[in-house]
Structures are given as structure tokens and as C-alpha cells.
Amino acid sequence: MEEIKRVLTALQTADSNKCSLPVNWHKGDLAIMPPPKTVSDLEARDAITENKVDFYLIKKTLA
Question: Residues with Cβ < 8 Å from 4, sequence gap 6 or more?
Fold first, then answer.
């Protein structure tokens, strides 16, 4: 039952924050920002340095 609750919470969190969540995500873990859709979005992401794995993979904390 606990796993079902965790998955439902993750799905609701991903939907409300427009992000992706890694496998076995728990509340308080980092989320994955969606990939950039335009060149200007890509340029804006270059300024991000915290939790940046690559230009297309950036993790963030959720509020």
C-alpha cells in the first residue's frame, strides 16, 4: 500500500509542477526539468549551474 501511495504522490507532483521524476522518487528529492523547446530556452538554461548534469538534464528542488 505504501508503494501505491508513493507512486500516486509522484504522479500528482509531476503533473502539477510540469516536470519529470526519477525512479523511486520520494517527496523532497530532486525533480528533472523538462528539456528546452526553443533556442532561447536553451540559452536561458546555460546560466543554471546548480544540479546541472548536462545542457538537457538539470535537476531542481520543488517548492
Answer: none
pLDDT at 9: 94
Residue with the three cell numbers 507532483: 13
Domain residue ranges of the chain, discontinuous segments joined by +? 2-60
Q: How far apart are the first and last CA of the chain?
A: 26
CA-wise closest residue to 22 among 35, 10, 12: 10
Query: 2-60 sits in which CATH class?
Result: alpha beta
Q: Extract the C-alpha cell encoding 8.
A: 500516486
Q: Rounded to an integer, what distance in angstroms lies between the CA atom of residue 55 and that of residue 59?
A: 11
Question: How long, in residues, is the chain?
Answer: 63
Query: Per the confidence metrics, is the pTM higher than 0.90?
Result: no
